[in-house]
Amino acid sequence: MEDFSFLLTVAIIILSTKFLGEASEKVHMPQVVGALIAGVILGPSVLGVVSETDFLAKSAEIGVIILMFIAGLDTDLKEIKKNAFAFVVIALCGVLVPLIGGFCCYYFFFDVDASNSTELLKAVFMGVILTATSVSITVEALREMGKLSGPVGNAILGAAVLDDIIGIIILTIVTSMKDPSVSIAVVFIKIGLYAVAMAVLAFIMTRLRDKVDELKEKRRISIYVIALVLAVSYASEEFFGIADITGAYMVGVILSTFKDHADIAKKMTVPSYLFFSPIFFASIGIKTELGGMTPSLLVFSLLLLIVAILSKIIGCGLGAKLCRYSTEDAFHIGIGMVSRGEVALIVAQKGYNMGLLSGDLFSPIVLVVIITTIITPILLKKLMK
Fold first, then answer.
1. CA-CA distance, 65 to 62, in Å (whole number)?
2. Which of 62, 120, 304, 360 is the most buried (most CB within 10 A)?
């Protein structure tokens, strides 16, 4: 007999995220904080009434893809072109400082023997996990405040896309040391081909822009657009090894120059708000399972959390300051890049599969992910009034 319990699960998630989202707003916090907390409460760490399923995982993935596409539509392309060099510097600093911080945290806490190459590689991999950035929640918080298209929002989005690519390169280098079958040269070739593919897509879509803008019947444009977003997201992951959300964001950026981009964003926001976004935000909390924490692991978790927060603020903030952003904006950019989200969990899973991360270290990483994901929008809301 077919199981229809997923319908009840979705109903519980939508109602709980809405209720706690509104409760968060009443205490002057972004609604996404309530949605994340709802996931934690519903998940195995508290009530255990909802567990991760294939349906929820795929719905959450579509949710984050739509969120990042809308973020791309809201992006000021002129601002990105004007500050491209700054975004590169911010991304580089935002990767290198957490990489060093995570390595040192693992190396000194577990007193790693420098002559043991395997343990040394594990320490490096801990740094790789901390380089990850997930800005989907930051994007939603900035949109709520009307700051997404400002200099801070554009810097966070621009640097995050480059951060993703730099992170992939570093991850590949580290895993190739463990697995000789992974070719660094192939990864660089794929990244280069991806840049070319995006440039070709931008050229084609730009040539079609005038024809699209002149269309009298525009109700179906959003249908074609969402199909394109999903196709590009698939191609990004499947053929180039680039995160699907990067592909979705790039399509959004290209379409941001179209006359009807605001109308497209409005139509995309409806399914996102009603269904996909609540599932995405709740799914992060549902993944959280904080059982089996020993006192030693708890101390390590605390140290890792401090390093995770400070390394992004210092790294990205320093990069922004070097590019002549004001001290206040540099600080806000650093905070906006603190959230690790699902990206760190994906990286951690990759390391676990390759023997670079032991199972008992998953709890500290999950704790870091959930806390950085929750505090990022809270800090932004408090500091960017």
1. 5
2. 304
